[in-house]
TrEMBL record:
The name this protein goes by in its record: Ribulose-phosphate 3-epimerase
GO process annotations (BP): carbohydrate metabolic process; pentose-phosphate shunt
Positions annotated to bind substrate: S9, H75, G173, F174, G175, G176, G204, G224, S225
GO MF term list: D-ribulose-phosphate 3-epimerase activity; metal ion binding
Organism: Xylaria flabelliformis
Enzyme Commission number(s) from the entry: 5.1.3.1
Classification via PROSITE patterns: RIBUL_P_3_EPIMER_1 (PS01085), RIBUL_P_3_EPIMER_2 (PS01086)
Ligand binding (a divalent metal cation): H34, D36, H75, D202
Required cofactor(s): Fe(2+); a divalent metal cation; Mn(2+); Co(2+)
Gene3D superfamilies noted in UniProt: Aldolase class I
Catalytic activity: D-ribulose 5-phosphate = D-xylulose 5-phosphate
HAMAP family in alphabetical order: RPE
Keyword Zinc assigned: yes
Length: 246
């Protein structure tokens, strides 16, 4: 399996001092920063957009290479994922992870949808993200099965293949929710078919749930409240890492 990547979710940081919180989290041993972007449409909550990402980027060193330390893993919980790729690239995003449900449903909504710029289908969107020089991720909500990903992951064209799949282990929208173990068979199925794929899990991860997720085959671990709410965040980060590496 690919290496462990621990990505604290800054949704649980203090938004009034995001830059300092991000820098400190990196010092505490984080590999990536997981940046939750919510638009109030795709999910019933709003966080922040590209201008804020551009400001916090200045507090975290750019990764020396793609997938490296300091990677900005932007989890786009937004209804129009294609529309914001360029903006986020300019702001310093490294990995743009869109929700399959958003790309798919907006493409299916109207017959002319595929030809308008803000709407697309998942394959074209992965290609577009790569063309913009970013890593591409595809996220699935709890209700969405992994079969929809086969076409992407097995595309003959590498530009259409995502660099990471995110399996949500809560309904997206809020931090601090209860982990849904019911989503782990999706992780297992992906790991069995794709030994080298980066598989991220997000929602309710912490010392009490990490072993299940790691055993299922997840290697990119998001944790918001478990890291930011800890007495000793560095200890939690290293515990998460050792669970994945054991
Ligand atoms: C939820 C977000 C998560 C959230 C996780 O919609 O995608 O990244 O911050 O928070 P915890 O780890 O507290 O469940
Ligand atoms: Zn997230």
């Amino acid at each position: 399996a690919p290496k462990a990547i621990i990505a604290p979710s800054i949704l649980s940081a203090d938004f009034a001092q995001l830059g300092a919180d991000c820098a400190r989290t990196m010092d505490q041993g984080a590999d990536w920063l997981h940046v939750d972007i919510m638009d109030g449409h795709f999910v019933p909550n709003i966080t922040f957009g590209a201008p804020v990402v551009a400001k916090i980027r200045k507090h975290v060193d750019r990764p020396a290479e793609k997938h490296g330390r300091g990677t900005f893993d932007c989890h786009m919980m937004i209804a129009e994922p294609k529309k914001w790729v360029r903006e986020f690239q300019k702001a310093g995003c490294d990995l743009y992870c869109f929700h399959y449900e958003a790309a798919f449903s907006s493409a299916a909504e109207s017959p002319e949808a595929k030809t308008t710029d803000a709407r697309t289908n998942p394959k074209d969107l992965v290609r577009y993200i790569h063309d913009c020089g970013l890593l591409a991720g595809v996220a699935l909500k709890p209700m969405t099965g992994v079969d929809v990903l086969t076409e992407l992951l097995e595309s003959p064209d590498p530009k259409e293949r995502p660099d990471m799949i995110l399996i949500m282990t809560v309904e997206p929208g809020f931090g601090g929710q209860k982990f849904m173990a019911s989503e782990l068979p999706k992780v297992q199925a992906l790991r069995k078919k794709y030994p080298d794929l980066n598989i991220e899990v997000d929602g309710g991860l912490g010392p009490g749930t990490i072993d299940q997720a790691a055993d299922a085959g997840a290697n990119v671990i998001v944790a918001g409240s478990a890291v930011f709410g800890a007495q000793d965040p560095a200890e939690v980060i290293s515990l998460l890492r050792s669970s994945v590496e054991k």
